Amino acid sequence: MPQILLSEGPSNGVRLLTLNRPEALNALNTALLEALSEQLDIAETDPETKAVVITGSERAFAAGADINEMASRDVVGMLEDPRVQHWARIDRFVKPLIIAVNGFCLGGGCELAMRGDILIAGTNAQFGQPEINLGIMPGAGGTQRLVRAVGQSLAMQMVLTGEAIGAQRALAAGLITEICQPELTVERAMAIATTIASKGPIAVQLARESVRRGADMDLAAGLRFERHAFTILAATEDRREGLDAFRNKRKPQFSGR
After folding, report:
1. Mean per-residue pLDDT, 176-191
2. Which of 111, 121, 149, 226 is labelled catalytic?
């Protein structure tokens, strides 16, 4: 049986995970989500992995959930759906997660992409939540993450019409970070991840957490968390190394301590 998730690296601190169900346009079935959860477990405990890039094929990042699998579940099956735990595992991942999207990024694929910290998209990318066309709705965070990413009006239009948006509109709306030619998307994502991997890992972790938490806090609470994280870094060897390297005009050698 072919591997449904390919793992490469880490190289220069970056691990590349590639969704590999081409016959189903990388539809996210339980087995693929489980494999992704397992690989994130490995990446999180691997000291050589500083950041992770997730991508699909040039035709599709992921065209949605596996409809055949979904149709086989009744209400009890949905309540006991093992995919819920896999999605939660992805949410708990503590290292930087960069998503490289080409082609279709729909339904569950869009919900997976929105879990990334940075999204790079090819010019051919299409983002959408088409569940309404099947008489259902997003169920893995689509309504909640989309409104935070693009605002209520566009999120409402995408969710209620099922219509997708292209890369240019996704960029203008704030859903993605930048656009590349499709053949350069993974290369660009890897370059960004490599840059992040070269920084002090404790500072990266706390800065990432501060940005993520701040999105769900009021400004005062976010500022308190940021200051707390900033203060914690004063006790690290990496801070002393970074400041000393700057003063002596040399490249810092961060140890993660």
Report:
1. 98
2. 111
Element (H, E) at 103: none
Among the listed residues 200, 185, 186, 190, the one whose alpha carbon sits nearest the alpha carbon of residue 253: 200
Compute the distance between CA of residue 175 and CA of residue 165 in angstroms, rounded to an integer: 10
Catalytic residue check, 64: no
What is the DSSP code (8-state) at residue 35? H
- The answer for residues whose C-beta is within 8 angstroms of residue 257's C-beta and 6 or more apart is 202, 236, 237, 238
Taking residue 84's Cβ as centre, other Cβ atoms within 10 Å add up to: 14
Examine the residue annotation and report whether 80 is marked as an active-site residue of this protein: no
Omega within 30 of 0 (cis) for the link into 82: no
Distances (CA, A) of 103 to 68, 126, 212: 22, 6, 27
58 included as an active-site residue: no
Cα–Cα distances in angstroms (integers) from residue 249 to residues 2, 212, 242, 245, in the given order: 50, 32, 10, 6
The token pair that represents 117 in the structure block? 């910290």
pLDDT on residue 49: 97
Q: Report pLDDT digits (tens) over 158-181.
A: 999 999 999 999 999 999 999 999
Interval 87-107: pLDDT, tens:
999 999 999 999 999 999 999
Annotated catalytic residue 8: no
Check if the beta carbon of residue 121 is closer than 8 Å to that of residue 79.
no
In the set 43, 63, 65, 100, the catalytic residue is: 65
Q: What is the mean pLDDT of the chain?
A: 93
CA angle at residue 174 from 170 to 179, to 5 degrees?
Answer: 55
| 142, 145, 150, 151 alpha-carbon torsion, rounded to 10° | 100
